[in-house]
Amino acid sequence: MIVANAAIPEAFQEGPGDDLALFDVSVEAGRVALVEPAAGQGGDIDARGGILVPAFVDMHTHLDKGHIWPRQANPDGTFMSALQATGEDRVAHWSAADVRARMEFGLAAAYAYGTAAIRTHIDSIPPQDDISWPVFAEVRAAWADRVTLQGVSLMNAASMAEDLGPLFDKITGFGGLVGAVLTPEADIAERIRRLLVTAEDRGLDLDFHVDETLDPSVNVLEEVARQAIAVGFSGTITCGHCCSQMARPEADAARTLDLVAEAGLAIVSLPLCNLYLQDRHAGRTPRIRGGTLVHEMAARGIRVAIASDNTRDPFYAYGDLDMVEVWREATRVLHLDHPVGLWPRAFSTTPAAIMGLAEHGRIAPGAPADLVLFSARHSTELFSRPQIDRTVIRAGAVIDASPPDYCELDALWTSPR
After folding, report:
1. Of the N and C termini of the chain, which has fewer Cβ atoms inside 10 Å?
2. pLDDT digit string (tens) for 225-245?
3. Active-site residue set
4. What CATH number labels 2-54+362-398?
């Protein structure tokens, strides 16, 4: 197959600027064979100057929480209400069948929209861990030919036992990564150190939820960086959210980011969910918008990815794991434009590298022919419409890009546990 006259952003051609150059992309045996300057001829698919990007990599999601909103809404849209509502739904409804149905619905949507790899956090508070992790392993195997799936445990570090060995054994036994919510308890430095030492001894990466608040006094991110430097951590530590940096004094935030860069931490920003949750007070317009200091991080060489986070659950009432929506809205909210520069990589190439998925996020000879083609020819066209007419190519073949119908989940709202 040849995709002719496709506009590939410079970010995916090792260029530094905003230009779009026209290429012909030849595909053989499910992989990219050649990427050559467009010859001006038609191919099996004539892109007619439409933008072509690698399939998306969504590295921070919650597939096990997804789509519970119809039976467990958030009464006021706040973070604390989301925690309570999700906990109530987990206890009442999260059987293996329920978790599987919602996970697979989310994966079907993401696949249709052009996502090739996903990392999902999995609520791992006992006894839910004994339900959700076996389901995750089965779903990962069932979807292996469509979506590369990684799992990360999710619980508050304050609830973890001092001996982390059994936790690591259980999670890695299912092929997962250990993660945690890090909150500013008095002993958080020691808890972080134990997590890092245990992971370092086992040669494992870590993925944390950090500073999901706009309280400027909260700065666990800096403690993660300090402990990573002290331990000499050699793997990848990903810190998601990091919202409090938006509210901290410039000089203080700069000091923290210098340490983050020195420690080699990777950051993932979740602007859609954090826009929904942060600075929410009844009857008051929000003043500070959700996100983190992505430009300041990138300027220091810190790897920054941008991802979906929650979908239709108490933490975010909307979303459908469509990375085009995430890309479009993040561009507006975080000003990833003028210049666009390398920011398109934040939705595919960079998260793929952080996740250790070397083949993903590239349009180059030898890479999987996992591509998304738009009729849009410029960024203003791409971000002005929802791109429902995109062409999704997986392993060199055009797939049906129709997301699943919500009615497929209707039985979950009426059936008992």
Report:
1. C
2. 999 999 999 999 999 999 999
3. 212
4. 2.30.40.10
